[in-house]
Amino acid sequence: MLGRTTTQFSHVKPGDTHFKTDGLRDFFLYCDLGIAEATHGKVIAHLVKANMAPEKGTGWHRHEADFQIVIMVKGWAKFMYEDKETLVSAGDCVHQRPGIRHYLFDYSPDMEYLEIVSPADFKSIDVAPVCDVPSPAPWK
């Protein structure tokens, strides 16, 4: 069974890969952890951290994905999941069910989270607003 796997072993250490600005959102930095390559696109895992203060947030959207979790490593972020405001703090794990409409609208300057999604080339689709969204707090 183990000899028939279609994925590869992967071991990424700090310094092997770096945070870059070429991700989904320009106000975040992204650090690829090598999982998409090792799984031939079945799964992506990357670290995401704040790069700029929130102004408009992500806007209402959903993902075309089979699986998605966010594990907050540092700081905090505030999301709207459908019509429910949710504070996600360091140590929290959120499973975003497929197709859930959401909006990340505020986060701390030290926010950093691990995101794991399948498939690796998931799509982000803008959707109509679900409800009003609170304004982000200005960074001091």
From TrEMBL:
Location of the Cupin type-2 domain = 51-104
Q: Which SUPFAM superfamilies match?
A: RmlC-like cupins
Q: Which Pfam families match?
A: Cupin_2 (PF07883)
List the InterPro entries: Cupin_2, RmlC-like_jellyroll, RmlC_Cupin_sf
- Write down what this protein is called: Cupin domain-containing protein
Instruction: Supply the source organism for this entry.
Output: Polaromonas aquatica
Q: What is the lineage of its organism?
A: Bacteria, Pseudomonadati, Pseudomonadota, Betaproteobacteria, Burkholderiales
